[in-house]
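One-letter codes give the sequence; backbone shape is given numerically. An example follows:

. . .
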Amino acid sequence: MNFRKIAMSDKEKIERFFVNNELYSDYEASELNFTNIFAWSHIDDIEIAEGENWILLRGQEGIDQYFLPPLALNKEGLEIVSQKFRKYCDEHHIYPILRGLNEKMKNYIMKECEHCFEFISYRNYDVDEYLYLSENLINLTGKKYSVKRNHLNKFLKTYPNFQERDYHFSDFPRIKEALDTWTSGKTLEMEKEAISHVLNHLQELDAFCNLIEVDHVLVAFAIGTITKNHVGLVLFEKADLNYDGAYAAINQMTAKKYFQGVKFINRQEDMGIPNLKKAKMSYHPHHLAEKYSLIEKRIIEKLRLLYETNFPEDKEPSQYLDYYFQEKMNIHQVTFLVQEREVISALYCFPRTLKFNQFSLECPVISAAATLPKYQNQGYFRKLMMDTFTKLRMKMVPLVMLYPLNHEIYRHFGFGVMNYFSKLIPSNTHLEYQVATTADISLLLELYNLFMEKYHFYVARDESSFVSLFKELTAYGGKLEIIYKETKPIGYVVTSLNNIEELILLENIYLEKYPSYLQTLPTTEVDIPGNMVRIIFVEKVLEEYPYPAIIKKVKLKIVDNLIEENNVIVEIDINQDNVTISEVETHDYVLDIMELSELIFTGKTTIKELQEVFVNSKTAIVDKY
């Protein structure tokens, strides 16, 4: 099996597999569409291996090598490609990961290829793609589309002299300039490269680019195609937010102009980005094109072996690791490195949402970072961390946190202390304890939220958070007890293996039941350092910070040695309740990314002016893993 760079001449070869082929007849996702493959081929280094009646595609996303679903003309072809693929994986010491399968393909491949591969399937909800009835996006009829009609009508009324037209090669410089202007120069370079790649081969790809101009100024464009399974596919869509209704206009006009003859329009995935999900849901999708990944079972076994090697204390009870690798972990939440068929280094990134004043920001928690002893101190962990930062930034995730055993290690990666704890002082207050069950979840959530009321930043929880907590407690033999003082519930405590894992108390009272356990509560004073946090998107975090109602301007130069885009000079202009964040040329103060992280979440700094600006920085984090 020999791989080579994908070329335009491969378009016909790939598309023939979708003609009268039952296996791919209902495939609605974009992964196997040649235009989409070609758009990202330079970024993901997509390569092709082919035989008489089969094709296999592979790509590279950061440190992760992946394969797209094998294409075969018939069962015989699938048998041939699976055997060749098995041999290739063995020769190159690869544990294969197949991406972008729908349920039918997943089930078929798991059954027909079981003699070559023992696969485990995972659903990746972040990359499910949104499909809409074309007539809905064209006509926008009914009450549910009233807001969209209003946006469109506002555009038509405000800019009656707009012009909608097809792309011409002479528009290329204008589109490149617009991408920078509309997004203040922050459009991902990879996306710009993909857009350019398609525009340079638009006709060969059977794709289109629709433009909207106002007074000869480009205000929106959309790039798309129609797949071999007759699904309209929107690959890229951009608009100038300074023109009211521009996004609604390019959406509706493109659907009307190009997709009259198809039943469904695929507007691709939300990548787990909350605002993008909200935007896609606002157009009322008909259904989702569900996408699965197939992972060789041995990967999970090797990941578990690495975990057991580095965290031997978690081996008992054994059901905890069963729970961890069968229920808690999704393969899409782990980044790992393989060498000579050994998983030598890995880290897990579990989703969390941070209550950031009145806003909610994604702030996943890094957990169980580990490297096999003989590979330590060779830069592998740094590779994992950098790859994690890149993936989070691509998903527009602004923050990431962790609970370290050694704080100094993570300072090198730009993490700063997020919150502090203080020890409870022994007292003789009598308390009662009641073992909690799932029937007590409402009370537990109420106690948690009451405790967090006095803080600006904390992890948002709902009832499902406590359902997950109970599952984990069952797995590792832990216990959750509600604490009562004179029959009144004042908090709860989570214990396991002679440790207090989590403590919530509405009164600072020492737990006389656990005198040998370390008892701490969050504090705003500099005491015992707790969690650490790292800023992934500087501008997003600064924009959402709850500034005090004062009149003040400060100019900050931010230095980040690991994430280039975070190196900015910004002015924070506070005028009572109005705050403006803008990029400037000069600065008053220089902060590295670690100092900025600590400043935002603890308010700690020696610079008096910044103490006045970042005064609302009370943080309480009790989540560890």
The two ends are 42 Å apart (CA to CA). The first helix runs from residue 10 to 15. Residues 1 and 495 are 53 Å apart (CA to CA).
